[in-house]
Amino acid sequence: MKFDFKYLDGGICAAKGYKASGMYCGIKRPANDTPDAKHKNDICLFTSDAPANTAAVYTQNKVKGAPLLVTKAHLEKTGGKSLAVIANSKNANTCNADGVEKAERMCELVATEMNINSDDVLVASTGVIGQILPIEPIEAAVPTLVKELGYDKNLEAATAIMTTDTVKKEVAVQFKIGGVPCTIGGMAKGSGMIHPNMATTLNFITSDCAISTEMLQKALSEIVKITYNCLSVDGDTSTNDMVLLMANGLAGNDEITCDGEEFEIFKGALFEVMATLTKMLAKDGEGATKLIVGSCRTAPDVETATTVAKSVVCSNLLKCAIFGEDANWGRILCAVGYADAEFDINKVDVQILSEFGEIEVCKNGAGVDFSEEKAAEILKSDEITINVDLNCGDRCATAWGCDLTYDYVKINGDYRT
What are the E-state strand segments in 225-299? Predict the structure, then answer.
């Protein structure tokens, strides 16, 4: 449904009652660790002034990071409520015998400093898998993190969760529920090891809207299917990834407890935040030079449209062609053809477009004449859209990915060392 909203600054601090902080604590010492070296933040904390109803979705990788297991257990104990989240980068705390113990310790440290129950603290980690997480730097950092919490410290937090990301990723929107202004804001990290199988990255979303835990979870589970689950950088589903969505009710609207217009408005705002972050994540894929937007239209149902759109952006051959600015449309049709969905390939049309123009390259499942010069001009853009028309319905879906470049191999060739 259509509704009015506006973008705000502030990321996870844009909604009422949320504070954040971030700092460098030394989880991983840089190679050039000199006295004048500039260190990037590697740990952050954000909190709600009031208990927040909290929903989550988790990676479906069979290997799950210890922080994810602890967060899930805490939400089960509290009935889906939380007050704080601590997150670190540079070490995933995954596949370690002492992983759960250290993830719990991180929560206990925050709880002690804030004088709250440790079950009300959630935890997340991202970085290298299979290396022991040093707890001493975190123990030293937590008192400072709590002391420096501020309603304007979203930037410090957003940069602390970055690994190979080249830019921070945050967004916030304001909308109205029953005439009451409400806000949803979020931050995300992710550049590599990203593939649609929720969750795909670390994503933290906060809201001051009053909405029950049940409806919050329903909204997140629905919107994730058409945003983060439609994202792929390299085909690898990470071990630590999850999305946390908190809502503390401080906006003062009547609580949303069932389906209806107000719930649809909330979902619309949540989609705006999550889709924007998804696009940011795709554009900042490791080594990427181009964002690829896969659009499947005129499909019989949303599931078919989503499957086809994702198949297109996941094709490594196509990703390479886009990097090389080669209108090799056969790779598009190939990716459409192996999508796990039912449709008539002989009805499929394909167009490639950017701000520099549009060309049709396939009609009714067969190639058509087009200008290679015009195609080359279109593909010079840093954002390429591929439209696939199945011509067998009125449903549509979008997926997001990026090109595959030499730098992706360089980044991942020595990621651990």
Answer: 242-247, 291-299
What is the per-residue pLDDT across 266-287, written as a single tens digit (0 to 9) for each? Answer: 999 999 999 999 888 877 767 7
* Cα–Cα distance, 415 to 376 (Å, whole number): 33
The catalytic site residues sit at 200
Q: Are 292 and 386 in contact (CB under 8 A)?
A: yes
Q: d(Cα 44, Cα 11) in Å, to the nearest integer?
A: 14
148-175: pLDDT as tens digits = 999 999 999 999 998 777 778 899 999 9
Q: Are strands 291-299 and 383-389 parallel, antiparallel or unpaired?
A: parallel
Nearest to 351, CA basis, from 307, 308, 294? 294
Write the CB contacts of 34 (distance below 8 Å, at least 6 apart in sequence): none
pTM over 0.90: no
